[in-house]
Amino acid sequence: MSNIVITIGREYGSGGKYIGKEVSKKLGINFFDNELLQKTYEKNGCNYSKLQQYDEVKRNSILKALDLLSMKNYDSVLEDDACQLLISDTIKEIAESESCVIIGRNANKILKDRNNVINIFIYSNDREFKINRKMKLENLSYNEAEKRLVYIDRQRRKYYEYLNKNSKWGNRTDYDFCIDSSILGVDGTVELIVNIYNSYMKEKERQ
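^ that's the sequence the OP posted. Answer follows.
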């Protein structure tokens, strides 16, 4: 049986990271979020702070163009693109070697041509659900959580759509399952994804 990889895109506050981590524990497979950066750093010996700086972030296109034209910050433009490529290569290598859960980083598109990948997007139509989760988990005020929700989702959307010109972040056609985590709750969503994984495994075994 080949490796099975679960990729999880997520809205801020939807519980995507927690859900992914719990799914990995229940299935006994590895979990990769910031661990992707560490693995990329260990493999390539690159600047870890640069990987963090460009992680799931789209640089302002105007500033990037000015850097290229002026040549004053040409290295930073190369670093931006190079970091994305290195992380992409790490995701491909992980998918070749083991079953796992991968959070964000455009993994669903990077692995799109593989038949051993389950692509999931976690969201919530209940805005209060997301804000209240972050207020509790990060000790934020309501306004702080709301502002962070808007900002981080905007960053993730720009990053995803910059790398995928004809796609929209969260569009159902880019995923196998889009799940509203506020309906079953985060723990219920964990169980749902575990069941999806197990059903997928059984189907593969029958083929």
